[in-house]
């Protein structure tokens, strides 16, 4: 800047660079960078422009320095150290060494246990959080879903609670919770049930399951009157059928209050239809009963 200089080129068109019509945005951009310099452009044929050609065709010297770079996987060494101090790993290793036929899917390789060709880990191994982070939350992991993340980890590693740990890790991933949409159909508008006019005419029915065994029963049938909020309870066995429910319903409801006008339940529609058929069969009459399914 501030000194005149000469540009030698073997392109004749560049000689008219400052006098030609500027047509493209690229020309405007690059010519604006030359403004303020004091220079002149001279044409020099490629045959005579030996200095520039020599720079373009420069050969590397005979002496060369070559080196080979090999990555060192310290992560596997950390896994080996954590497994050596684990009692479960020691017991399984001894069991495989003593009776290999009892463990056909397990093999010992370089201080590790391979389960169907994958590295075996104990469920509380300290390296598991790093594996989950690497296969899900890094740019290479790409914050994939549960199935894809599980598939990528299962191709290399194995531990008993792998799927459960992946599901919990993704559920607690802040990035996924903030940026991923919920791929479910909208719930729609609320559709409330019509108000009841009299007691024990409009009922709701549900079940309490997985209770401790008592006199052969593990399920409680709960029938609520939607008008008075009165409740009747009945006991059912684990493998109850629609016939058992209809019989119990006749005993605790119909015998005391008569047949209702409507029943609301969150059970499967097929089960509700079976209950409706069994109830009509037990009553021996044709009733006008409305059974609604509400989740």
Question: What does this protein look like?
Answer:
Helices cover 36% and strands 17% of the residues. Helix 10 (269-283) links the parallel strand 10 (262-265) and strand 11 (290-293). The strands form three sheets. Strands 9-8-7-10-11 form a five-stranded mixed β-sheet, with helices on one face. Strands 3-4-5-6 form a four-stranded mixed β-sheet, covered by helices on one side. A two-stranded parallel sheet has the order 1-2. The protein has helices at residues 25-34, 50-56, 74-84, 87-98, 128-137, 146-154, 162-171, 174-179, 242-257, 269-283, and strands spanning 5-9, 39-43, 106-109, 112-115, 118-120, 157-158, 202-208, 219-225, 231-236, 262-265, 290-293. The mean pLDDT is 82. It has 295 residues and is α/β, with parallel strands linked by helices. It folds into three domains: 5-56, no CATH class; 74-179, Orthogonal Bundle (Endonuclease III, domain 1); 202-293, Ribonuclease H-like superfamily/Ribonuclease H (Nucleotidyltransferase, domain 5), CATH 3.30.420. Helix 6 (146-154) crosses helix 7 and helix 9 (242-257) packs across helix 10.
List the main descriptive attributes of the protein structure presented here.
36% helix; 295 residues; 10 helices; 5-stranded mixed sheet; 3 domains; Nucleotidyltransferase, domain 5; 4-stranded mixed sheet; elongated; Endonuclease III, domain 1; alpha/beta
CATH class annotation of the largest domain: Mainly Alpha
The CATH topology of the largest domain comes to Endonuclease III, domain 1
From the coordinates shown, what is the CATH architecture of the largest domain? Orthogonal Bundle
Beta-strand proportion: 15-25%
What is the tally of beta strands?
A: 11
**Tally of DSSP helical segments:** 10
* Largest sheet data: 5 strands, mixed
- Name the helicity range: 25-40%
